[in-house]
Design a protein that fits this description.
NAD+ binding, alpha/beta, eight-stranded mixed beta sheet, elongated, 8 strands, Rossmann fold
Length: 233
């Protein structure tokens, strides 16, 4: 599955973080919500996630020097220089600015006409998710894949009757996706097998701030796997 443009609907904590992960991997992303205020907040979250990573990288050498000093080890100037060279920031402010620039906000679905892969990340209720999927279905190109970030709802029911029904599946990221690598992937009754396997392969090619993304295939069932373990169903 070739993804040159991606989209996320829902600019809350999860949606903006998913958008940041996609942009972190070099993919231009359109991030949608229902008002300019919510979109602006979502873009601010994206910037905040990136700034945290820039700050972490900039401080790695100093923290390591402090850690060694706390052990009672007196480093020489040469050793400090060597440590700083080894821990030179890999994620610079310039790289951070590139990630932020890849995410653009919108309040309309018109921006999704050239999107190859979209994640729906709105409130966990069928009556909220279904209209979003219908709106996406009306504008997305024929080949586009729709991933729902639902943590418990039936994708078969959510996607029923859509033009993209065979290309709609669960892509359940865990919070926060920029540090937690797991993604549950589940097809519905009508989801094509190649869409499931291609989506898993696409996700396997991504990484977040710490780890490669780890998609796991699960069956369509209430709360899927992880939430069934963590919470009684």
């Amino acid at each position: 599955m070739r993804v040159t443009h991606a989209g996320v609907v829902g600019a809350g904590a999860m949606g903006s973080a998913i958008a940041e992960v996609l942009a972190f991997n070099g993919i231009p992303v359109v991030l949608k919500d229902v008002s300019d205020e919510l979109v602006t907040k979502g873009l601010g979250r994206v910037r905040g996630y990136v700034d945290e990573l820039v700050t972490y990288n900039a401080g790695r050498a100093g923290k390591e020097i402090e850690r060694i000093g706390a052990l009672g080890v007196q480093l020489t100037d040469a050793q400090i220089t060597t440590l700083r060279a080894k821990l030179v920031p890999k994620f610079t402010p310039a790289r951070g600015a590139e990630v932020v620039a890849r995410v653009r906000g919108t309040t309309t679905y018109d921006e999704f006409r050239d999107v190859d892969f979209v994640v729906e990340a709105v409130f966990e209720r069928t009556e909220v998710k279904r209209p979003v999927l219908e709106a996406l279905d009306a504008v997305l190109p024929e080949h586009a894949v729709i991933g729902s970030n639902t943590s418990s709802l039936s994708i078969t029911r959510l996607a029923r009757g859509l033009r993209h029904v065979s290309q709609t599946l669960v892509t359940h990221f865990f919070n926060p996706p920029y540090t937690l690598p797991l993604v549950e992937v589940a097809g519905g009754v009508d989801t094509r097998e190649d869409v499931v396997t291609d989506t898993i392969e696409f996700l396997q090619g991504l990484r977040n701030h710490r780890f490669p993304i780890v998609p796991i295939r699960v069956k369509e069932s209430p709360a899927f796997v992880v939430n069934r373990i963590l919470l009684p169903v």
